[in-house]
Specification:
The structure is a single chain. By secondary structure, the protein is an all-alpha fold. Helix content is about 75%, strand content about 0%. Helix 3 runs antiparallel to helix 4.
Length: about 130
């Protein structure tokens, strides 16, 4: 628990990362930042998709529409939080000369997006009008 609290503190005070290890080649830090931005773009797309499902598919039954929208919105929120956490963990690992951290999050996110996509295929093919 202490480790988690320390990592979250680094989200809001990234200058503290400089206290650890040696400064890596700036190209690696910039690549880490580009990866962070890619995750943020993914999060924004998921959030936008959640709002689009809710706003532009009013013919869907409320429960189906809300479920799909909330699934996408939750995935977007988790993706944004994971982006920050991954950036901090990678930056720390580079400074310490450690292997970059591995994560199951891309797999989980991919599965969530795939499930929502399959649900949307079912809706498109068979309709699901709310009455």
């Amino acid at each position: 628990m202490k480790r988690i609290a320390q990592s979250v503190r680094l989200w809001f005070a990234p200058q503290r990362i400089r206290d650890e290890g040696a400064t890596p080649d700036y190209r690696f830090s910039l690549a880490n930042e580009r990866t962070f931005l890619a995750w943020i773009r993914t999060a924004l797309a998921l959030i936008g998709g959640g709002f689009a499902v809710d706003q532009f598919l009013p013919e869907l039954a409320w429960g189906v529409r809300a479920g799909l929208a909330l699934g996408l919105l939750a995935a977007g929120v988790l993706c944004a939080l994971r982006a920050v956490n991954h950036w901090v963990r990678c930056e720390r690992a580079m400074r310490r000369g450690e292997d970059l951290p591995v994560s199951r999050f891309p797999t989980v996110l991919g599965i969530v997006v795939a499930v929502v996509a399959v649900a949307m295929v079912v809706v498109v093919l068979f309709g699901w009008e709310g009455r």
